[in-house]
């Protein structure tokens, strides 16, 4: 059984007349890993900054169930911004100890925690070096260490791997995989792949609104649609003409096929979203035979999360 | 906190009870922030070079006053037999001159050294990482303010003390009371100007903007206090004039009620400026 | 005032002043050489620090280093 950790209700933010976030609702269950997924400019960072208390919302509220009245919600959150900035004159060790002390840890406790965490994020050897000389990947890992220093209930990260090179990215992803079994995690990303790889739940936002949310598994099964992809011979005008006419007929409503729900021509690929797979296969083959369409490949399958994501955010 | 709260905590964070017990108070957090500011002053060498500059300025003034007649004589190319009458400087006058030197060079250096104290961290995003932790905005601002005070009062004391000592060696002994009184009044003026710098460092993106706004305000206030002393005697701008008077008058300066008001308004203004800085910071703890 | 300067007294008084200025200059020079990046060419700053009297080192401390 999972208990609710945090709830966001009607969270909105306007900058002047621009509404960056328009009344977002979602909740986070304890122990889950949640991805805030959306294209750039969808309002992910704004939402995250409001969650962490760095930005005052125009309307709405963020509430933690385990928060006693009068207690600071920042005590429960560990935050890693997209590109964390530190005091460059400090060493890695000094910074994590400092972070721990700011979270109310005692001197020796903060030191022990810092040592443990630096070891864990692979910075033990660089602990005494000045932060000014850290690479992007090292800074990200240090950011992770300082965010975890007070064992937060919720780890919040803004695009944790977007700014990293492939090596640093793999390293941080590996750490995150480990961490998500220990604490609740919320992170934003514009890369579906990262979300799929790490998280249990997704909240997809588009232009400041929640477009779709739920567990990855349920979204996958609910929105799974049979699709057919037909690859045509590009040089063969007869085939292309047929495809164009077919798409036009379907979309204009001139001819409606009961087995077909959507048709789209992308380059030399005809994408068909089917209503009934078996009927669709049958009917399409007949159609192709009738017009003797030369095609190079016919693929039958199910829509991927990627297709869904593109559809949800693409409009 | 009451018992109900404890129960509430107990049910939801039972496993963490021992950890929360070791949590230290807000005072420890403030000291951590202050410690960081002081370490930064030290690592950036500000804690070393600013006091040295003040000491150099403080020594130079009495030395210059002492050698001035000779310098003029040597450089003056006067016709033979010209008798130059330069009255020997009064020790107290040398101290007042030193203060006015600090009032230009000293405050310029301090304002420039402190101009980025908030805006720098805010622009880089370093403040965001600090302020997402359970740290009060007031202690963040106050730790920075206190570090500025430490630097400015310390430097002023060192520089002015050096001036006083050299005046004693070269010219004459000046009583401790006028020296200390003028020091405190001038320190208060410094505090006021630098608190304005802190406010604008919080309000503005540009560090240079913060320095020049606060220096501009300082100049405006002193000029106004000089031009229309009758109406501006209560303003902090009158503090510099007051400090010169304190340095040059023997024993305790007889302060008029209006002069007391200058001290009180300066104190109130400092408190208000700090409060305004906290409010500004709270409104936008970090920038993108 | 005393017209005849005692040389030893004069030296004794000015030595601290010179030492302080030297300390400033040396700290500034060390920092200038050690820092990765200065605002403007390093050599220019070295010259400013050495020949700029009191103002040289101050200018370097205030403006010479890229803000960390």
UniProtKB/TrEMBL annotation, chain A:
Q: Determine the domain of life of the protein's source.
A: Bacteria
Q: Where in the numbering of this chain does the ABC transporter domain appear? A: 6-232
InterPro entries membership = AAA+_ATPase (IPR003593), ABC_transporter-like_ATP-bd (IPR003439), ABC_transporter-like_CS (IPR017871), DrrA1/2-like_C (IPR025302), P-loop_NTPase (IPR027417)
Q: Which UniProt keywords apply?
A: ATP-binding, Nucleotide-binding, Transport
Please name the Pfam families in this protein's record: ABC_tran (PF00005), DrrA1-3_C (PF13732)
MF-aspect GO terms: ATP binding; ATP hydrolysis activity
Keyword field contains Protein transport:
no
Q: Of which family is this protein a member?
A: Belongs to the ABC transporter superfamily.
Q: Which PANTHER family match?
A: ABC TRANSPORTER RELATED, ABC TRANSPORTER, ATP-BINDING PROTEIN
Identification of the protein by name: ABC transporter ATP-binding protein
UniProtKB/TrEMBL annotation, chain B:
- What protein does this entry describe? ABC transporter permease
> Organism source for this protein?
Paenibacillus pinisoli
Name the domain of life this protein comes from: Bacteria
Q: Which residues cross the membrane?
A: 47-68, 99-120, 141-167, 179-200, 207-228, 258-281
* Pfam families noted in UniProt: ABC2_membrane_2
What are the record's GO terms for cellular component? plasma membrane
> Where does the record place the region Disordered?
1-22
From the Swiss-Prot or TrEMBL record, what is one GO molecular function term?
A: ABC-type transporter activity
Q: Could you tell me the keywords of this UniProt record? A: Membrane, Transmembrane, Transmembrane helix
TrEMBL record, chain C:
Q: Which UniProt keywords apply?
A: Cell membrane, Membrane, Transmembrane, Transmembrane helix
Gene Ontology CC entries for this record = plasma membrane
User: What is the membrane topology listed in the Swiss-Prot or TrEMBL record?
Assistant: Multi-pass membrane protein
Q: List the Pfam families.
A: PLDc_N
Localization in the cell = Cell membrane
Known InterPro entries for this protein? CLS_N
In which domain of life is the source organism classified? Bacteria
Residue ranges constituting the Cardiolipin synthase N-terminal domain according to the UniProt record: 23-65
Q: Which residues cross the membrane?
A: 12-31, 43-63
Q: What is this protein called?
A: PLDc_N domain-containing protein
Please tell me the species this chain comes from.
Paenibacillus pinisoli
Q: What is the lineage of its organism?
A: Bacteria, Bacillati, Bacillota, Bacilli, Bacillales
């Amino acid at each position: 059984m999972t208990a609710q950790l945090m709830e966001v209700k009607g969270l909105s933010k306007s900058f002047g007349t621009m509404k960056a976030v328009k009344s977002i609702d979602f909740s986070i269950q304890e122990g889950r890993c949640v991805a805030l997924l959306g294209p750039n400019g969808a309002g992910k960072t704004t939402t995250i900054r409001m969650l962490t208390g760095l930005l005052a919302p125009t309307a709405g509220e963020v509430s933690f169930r385990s928060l006693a009245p009068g207690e600071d919600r920042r005590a429960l959150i560990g935050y890693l911004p997209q590109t964390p900035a530190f005091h460059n004159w400090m060493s890695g060790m000094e910074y994590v100890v400092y972070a721990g002390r700011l979270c109310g840890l005692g001197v020796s406790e903060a030191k022990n925690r810092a040592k443990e965490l630096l070891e864990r994020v692979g910075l033990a050897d660089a602990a005494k070096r000045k932060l000014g000389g850290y690479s992007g990947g090292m800074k990200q890992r240090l950011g992770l260490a300082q965010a975890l220093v007070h064992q937060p209930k919720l780890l919040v990260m803004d695009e944790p791997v977007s700014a990293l090179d492939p090596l640093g990215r793999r390293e941080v992803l590996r750490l995150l995989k480990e961490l998500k079994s220990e604490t609740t995690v919320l992170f934003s990303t514009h890369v579906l792949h990262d979300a799929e790889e790490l998280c249990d739940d997704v909240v997809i936002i588009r232009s400041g609104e929640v477009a779709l949310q739920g567990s990855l598994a349920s979204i996958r099964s609910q929105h799974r649609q049979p699709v057919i992809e037909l690859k045509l011979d590009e040089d063969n005008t007869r085939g292309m003409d047929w495809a164009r006419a077919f798409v036009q007929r379907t979309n204009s409503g001139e001819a409606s096929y009961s087995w077909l729900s959507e048709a789209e021509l992308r380059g030399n690929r005809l994408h068909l979203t089917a209503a009934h797979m078996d009927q669709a296969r049958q009917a399409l083959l007949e159609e192709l035979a009738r017009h003797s369409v030369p095609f190079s490949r016919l693929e039958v399958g199910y829509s991927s999360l990627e297709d869904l994501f593109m559809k949800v955010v693409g409009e | 906190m009451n018992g109900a709260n404890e129960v509430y905590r107990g049910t939801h964070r039972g496993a963490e009870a021992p950890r929360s017990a070791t949590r230290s108070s807000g005072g420890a957090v403030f000291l951590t922030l202050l410690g960081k500011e002081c370490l930064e002053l030290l690592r950036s060498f500000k804690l070393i070079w600013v006091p040295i500059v003040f000491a150099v300025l403080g020594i130079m003034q009495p030395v210059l006053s002492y050698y001035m007649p000779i310098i003029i004589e040597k450089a003056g190319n006067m016709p033979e037999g010209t008798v130059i009458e330069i009255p020997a400087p009064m020790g107290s006058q040398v101290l007042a001159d030193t203060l006015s030197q600090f009032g230009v060079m000293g405050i310029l250096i301090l304002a420039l050294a402190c101009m980025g104290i908030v805006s720098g961290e805010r622009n880089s995003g370093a403040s965001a990482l600090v302020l997402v932790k359970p740290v009060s905005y007031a202690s963040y601002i106050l730790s920075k303010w206190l570090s500025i005070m430490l630097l400015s009062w310390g430097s002023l004391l060192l520089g002015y003390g050096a001036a006083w000592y050299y005046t004693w060696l070269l010219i004459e002994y000046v009583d401790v009371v006028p020296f200390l009184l003028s020091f405190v009044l001038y320190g208060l003026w410094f505090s006021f100007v630098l608190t304005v710098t802190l406010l604008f460092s919080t309000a503005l993106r540009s560090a240079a903007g913060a320095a020049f706004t606060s220096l501009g305000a300082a100049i405006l206030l002193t000029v106004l206090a000089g031009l229309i002393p009758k109406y501006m005697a209560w303003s902090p701008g009158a503090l510099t004039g007051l400090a010169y008077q304190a340095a040059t008058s023997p024993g305790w300066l007889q302060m008029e009620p209006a002069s007391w008001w200058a001290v009180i308004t300066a104190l109130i203004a400092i408190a208000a400026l700090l409060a305004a800085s906290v409010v500004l910071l709270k409104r936008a703890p970090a920038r993108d | 005032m005393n017209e005849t300067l005692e040389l030893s007294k004069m030296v004794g008084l000015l030595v601290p002043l010179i030492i302080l200025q030297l300390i400033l200059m040396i700290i500034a020079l060390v920092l200038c050489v050690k820092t990765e990046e200065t605002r403007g060419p390093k050599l220019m700053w070295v010259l400013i620090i050495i020949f700029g009297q009191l103002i040289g080192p101050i200018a370097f401390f205030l403006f010479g280093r890229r803000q960390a």
